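Reviewers of the previous submission asked for a worked example of the structure-prediction workflow described in the proposal, so we include one complete record here. The input consisted solely of the amino acid sequence. No template or homolog information was supplied to the procedure at any stage.
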Amino acid sequence: MALTEVYWDHHIPLPRLAPGLAKIIVALLALLCFVNSYDGEFVFDDSEAIVNNKDLRPTTPLSNIWSNDFWGSNLSSNSSHKSYRPLTVLTFRWNYLVAGDLHPVGFHVLNIILHALVSILMIDIFAILIGGLDYDEKGWIVNHAPKTSLLAAMFFATHPVHTESVAGIVGRADLLCALFFQLSFLTYCKAFNTGNERFSVHWVVVSLSLCAAAMLCKEQADEFVKSSSNTGKIQITSDLEKTYEMFRMGLLRRLALMLLGGLSMLYARWRIMGTGPPAFTEVDNPASFAENVFLRIVNYNYYYSLNAWLLLCPWWLCFDWSMGCVPLIKSASDWRMVWLLLLWCILIGLIGQALCSQDIQRRRTLTLGLVLLLVPFLPASNVFFRVGFVIAERVLYLSSAGYCLLLAYALGLCFCRCSKYRRLLCIMVLALLCLYVVRCALRSHQWRSEQSLFISALSVCPLNAKVHYNVGKNLADRGNSTAAIIYYREAVRLHPTYVHAMNNLGNILKEKNELVEAEELLSKAVSIQPDFAAAWMNLGIVQNSLQKFEKAEQSYWNAIRFRRKYPDCYYNLGRLYADQNRHVEALNAWRNATVLKPDHSLAWNNMVILLDNTGNLGQAELIGREALRLLPEDHTIMFSLANVLGKLQKYKESEGFFLHALRINPNAASCHGNLAVLYHRWGKLDLAKKHYEYALKLDPEAPGTRDNYNMLLRKMDQFNRND
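From that input alone, the workflow returned the following structure tokens.
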């Protein structure tokens, strides 16, 4: 099964290390590159996949993981991305359980460890692909290319294109998929270490099971695991005798077993996910929406050349490559056509060498290196189905192993044939590894926070509207709305139909009371995307502020029509009705909000206040008590209920709620003031005086408090004179 010693291997200027020591070195390099991301935040897609994903919570049934997609949406939903990765979500849930909450450190540490494990196993993978499959008497893999496999694994461990997969927590899907792919490949190879001429069905079944696990970590796994597993065994040879030997060892049975396993997994996926593909928009992948087939193919190939460039020169890295980051090629005269031609010239040259070279070791290494480079990339190539991105660095995680193998092979040949420049080559290899490590450290540091991640993209993709949008959103979240406006405006300028940027910009302008421009932006957003429920609601808020009550009401109902379960919209609709003294409709709207979201504090509180103001004290008391059963520590509802109970002359109970509210929020001037009023009515004048003074100290301009305080002083003075 194995080849002889690989002739270029001993020319590579690396020590021939014991297998264990080689793996320790590779692991340390992997850790060195990404260890500074261990205490990073949840960034970018982590918000949807982890922070807002209810499937991670212990209160959510575990069975939900198997019926929802990676982002927590039901697979049958039209909004689902059909990314079915239950095992990856299960590891997120494990992180949550171990930490007791959403603490990002544990998530990051596990990602770093997984990358180190994948890098370690790459040594064995490369050893088999380069030198063939061979075992010693103890059952350990014999490495016939120890230096080449070590060099390739070192390149893999330190390649900067992996930063998104390692430092970005959602990249765990790629890490786990790669890990189970490796285990599937190695156990498949184990099937031939049986001590006889037949393969072991047991190990092939284990390999298929691990293949299924890879598929449950990331949905593209079934596209490449089976192909790579087969190439791990089949030698690249024209020798008829060896071909006959493979048939004698059960090649047809093995292929039938693999085919049956693959079809079973595809059928299971079809039953779980259905046949409908996810819906992507033109901004996600503009080339796939080009009407001209020629231009579509040209742009796909241009994307391939950019992916190849990221492997060759991983300096320009970006968290998102959509929305104008990569302008489309629109004619054959575009100078960028050169990159397509160059890519295919190199690929055709490599394929020609892989097929026609007289050197069996070269044929084997080139063939399997190209397979490992290209097959994992196929699901992202737009060949079989439309994907939702232009370029995604994470999809290159496993493909980069093929690149690293080919790079190590090329350097091995250089050391073999150019001994005169050996010293220079050594310096170049060392410099390349050092550059990789430094670039990984810098890039993983950028992934520590959304602020640094988004800002780093401005120099790489200045034409990307989503980059400007994310910078603006991050600034707004940190309270810098003035700077956020600049980036939101630039996002809209770059992409005039960017409705989410319009919506967020409109919200900020609304807060700054620039209502006319806010209405224009939000109106444009809903005209571009009529089912944009959030924009309809925000438009209603602006129109309400402009006293366009009929239009505001219609906007709210449009939002509810497009998103039926929209508690915040019902809350704002209730406020509109309350402003118009349509009290019954306001109460109904707020009740709908609390039905859809039982912990909607504002809706509960507004119901209590409205009933209090309209003299319905008994109903206000019932609503307040119902709200506190659901929100027992909500001091605003306690305050409103205490006011109601005071008017009902239930002074003792009212006092209890006021004091409880003050324990939660001791600096609430209004609470001190109303408690003082309660004591004033109750006849506890000293306590009333004490809390009036607290209220005035916290808020000297509190309306009515000073008048009530002066009235109390006159009353106390009158009592003193009478005494």
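The mean pLDDT is 87. We consider this example representative of the routine output the project will generate in years two and three.
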